[in-house]
Design goal:
117 residues, mainly alpha, two-stranded antiparallel ribbon, 4 helices
Length: 117
């Protein structure tokens, strides 16, 4: 189990490092979006570094994997009524179905904060 944890952590750190080293396309996409031709494509001529190519080669699959992970986590970590007596019947105490922490649980908050960032 510890070896699996180390492997997953290493993979995530590699993805993070590769992403951080690559160039951002955020500002370029504003200009490029105006160059879409009648077939829906943009002819792009650019210089890419090794880091950019390393990032781009796996970016699609990694984004899909992270989206799947996020969906699985929010499906697992969702609220349920905790039951018991409460002083406000309109706002019952809720707990996470997966970890039983008070809602919103730390896992759900971490996902929410990362996506709202």
């Amino acid at each position: 189990m510890q070896q699996r944890h180390a492997h997953l952590r290493e993979r995530l750190e590699t993805i993070r490092a590769r992403s951080a080293k690559s160039s951002t396309w955020r500002t370029s996409t504003q200009v490029l979006s105006r160059l879409v031709n009648k077939n829906g494509f943009v002819p792009v001529r650019t210089r890419l570094s090794r880091e950019d190519l390393a990032f781009l080669s796996g970016a699609r699959e990694e984004v899909i994997a992270f989206a799947d992970l996020g969906l699985r986590l929010i499906d697992m970590h969702r609220p349920q009524e905790a039951g018991g007596i409460t002083s406000d019947p309109d706002r019952p105490i809720r707990r996470c179905r997966a970890c039983m922490s008070r809602w919103p649980c730390p896992t759900y908050r971490a996902i929410s904060e990362a996506l709202d960032h």
